[in-house]
Amino acid sequence: MLGFLKNPVVVTVEINMNLVALTVMGLISRLWGLSYPRAVVFDEVYYGQFVSLYMKRIFFVDDSGPPFGHMLLALGGYLGGFDGNFLWNRIGAEYSMNVPVWSLRLLPALAGALCVPLAYQILVELQFSHCAALGAALLILLENSLITQSRFMLLESILIFFILLAVLSYLKFYNLQRHSSFSGSWWFWLLLTGVACSCAVGVKYMGLFTYMLLLTIAGLHFWHMIGDQNLSNVSLMCHFLARGLALIIIPMAMYLSFFYVHLTLLYRSGPHDQIMTSAFQASLEGGLARITQGQPLEVAYGSQITLRNVLGKPMQCWLHSHTNTYPIRYENGRGSSHQQQVTCYPFKDVNNWWIVKDPGMQQLVVSNPPRPVRHGHIVQLVHGITTRYLNTHDVAAPLSPHSQEVSCYIDYNISMPAQNLWRVEIVNRESDTDVWKTILSEVRFVHVNTSAVLKASGFIGASLPEWGYRQLEVVGEKLSKGYHQSMVWNVEEHRYGKSQEQKEREVELHSPTQMDISKNLSFMAKFTELQWKILTLKNEDTEHKYSSSALDWITMDTNIAYWLHPTSGAQIHLLGNVVTWASANVAALVYMCLSLWYLVRRRRKIYDIPEDAWQLWVSAGGICVGGWAVNYLPFFLMEKTLFLYHYLPALTFQILLIPSVLQHLSNHLCRSLLLKSMFNALIVAWFSSVYFVYCTFSPVTYGEPSLSVTELKNLRWKDSWNILIRKQ
Hints:
It is a multi-pass membrane protein. The protein is an alpha+beta fold. Among the domains are: 294-516, Trefoil (Acidic Fibroblast Growth Factor, subunit A) (Trefoil), CATH 2.80.10.50; 540-727, no CATH class. Helix content is 44%, strand content 11%. It has helices at 17-31, 44-55, 68-79, 101-125, 130-141, 144-150, 156-177, 184-203, 207-226, 233-265, 278-282, 288-292, 502-510, 523-536, 550-554, 578-603, 611-632, 648-668, 673-702, 709-714, and strands at residues 303-309, 318-325, 340-345, 353-357, 378-383, 390-396, 404-408, 422-426, 443-447, 452-456, 472-478, 489-496, 560-564, 571-574. The strands form three sheets. It has a six-stranded antiparallel β-sheet with strand order 9-8-5-4-1-12, with no helix packed on it. Strands 2, 3, 6, 7, 10 and 11 form a six-stranded antiparallel β-sheet that branches. Helix 6 (144-150) packs parallel to helix 19 (673-702) and helix 7 (156-177) runs parallel beside helix 9. The longest helix is centred in the middle third of the chain and has 33 residues, at 233-265. The chain starts with 16 loop residues before the first helix and ends in a 14-residue tail after the last helix.
């Protein structure tokens, strides 16, 4: 029974020393002197703000992409014990002692270091030689721009890591497909492909380009499987479902989980609240939640409310009125009704309060029990402080002459009767009997007499002149002109009115409300709103000193100065290895020319290379050229400020193509031993030049040693490079 103990337990481990050596060199190149400089470097000033907000659990919105990358940077701060107390207001500012610089920069550096062995593994899985794979890894190792970008609190190195991990995982899965489908390792690599794709997209939306490429390649591979007569229909269906689960369902679930963690962590009100809806703001601790907590849920006749415009751009504002009237004549000579002004005011104010009145009754208090207002009900809106009724009529608005003026009605005993009836339309209703709800309901007010809709037109036009205190214009817009979010309002603050007398009511309007009704949003409601804001919220693009066009990237006609020492000539630049960038362009050109040549020849039934070499050539192009194209060409369609670092994912794929092309040329075009020897000698000389350029530009890659003015001038290999030289 215990016979198995007679022999020793032996564990055999195979260690690829190439991988070990490349990993160690990658770690050294990225982690060496990581805390230097101990100052804010370029976009650390941008990402650092979000890390601080994570540490303090304060909600924010970043329109540059999903939150996963920010959370990874924040994880570095958390592991280093960062309390979030640092003012990220200036590039070059010295970090205070409470900022764990090494810890904050650690994860991007680790990601950049691991890209080196990943590059090696990708070429091995593409069936290239270990020599070619080693060359690809060394090119990634010695690429100055990738080193610079991975040594600071930035996201590109993390994005590239997940992109390469996704490619490697899919290649391993595909190679296992031939002999061990549905095995444990087959499932592992397939699932890891989906996980890595979702992480890449979660870091930056640029990851979506590689995700789409891999989905396309997976689709083509499955299309070929359909033609395999050895596979049964059941087997094909299982393969299809497995790929759908791993490459679509799991990435979608993970993407949602990033937002779930993000919203769970950031539960406190912050500076970005104002662009979110009232319901979202009320779900955060502090801020609006302190005001609205415990408000009545259902709006009833007699309710005292503030109405916030849903659009919220360029700023949030509330329906407002004050005792001042429209001028009898405007500057352009047009006349007005001289009624009380109604505006949209971007600040909290007692003049933002309105009372919902039943047109058939005189009381301005809520009855017992309350009578809720429903979709389609007719109401009057009474201004709380002046007790005048919201009104519109066939008089041109002050700034929008094609729209109707909105006012609070004053009876001048002239032939201009009050027109103050409004129909409540709940835009996001589930049925036609829905009750108007605080914060949750988005409503339109349709004027009964003219069918005009209450609209905050100041979002589109200009603010009112001095007589309107520069507040935003409110108009009555004809429904025939289409739907716009500026026509939609929601109740933000709400109380049940109890005072019929005006003086008592004014005191009531100044006092806080306290009734206990919860208005928590579901996760999916918050996710949908936040996702929409990320996709649609666009900061005004301003011309940056170091911005560039996509055409500048290929030939590296631009650079970015990341940091300059305050007293010496030490500085850090985002500059690539000139030899590597030029070689990558040549490799891409050679690949496309050779591919065209082969295709034409194969069409004529002339096969210059064996079929297995052709398949290898096509596979390399699909991954390397395809990866370069999908990560580069979309930038020609983007209307945003672009920088050189946007090219780095595309460059990485292009670098992987170099040894692929070199091996192909060596194997199939260098036919004689002499040609092979000469070609190998050229490769050695070329690689020596790559290392020489790496060493030459290392001082501006790592920021040390400090260079003299002459040495800095010698580094300006192109007139378009902006090397910083201090005036003597």
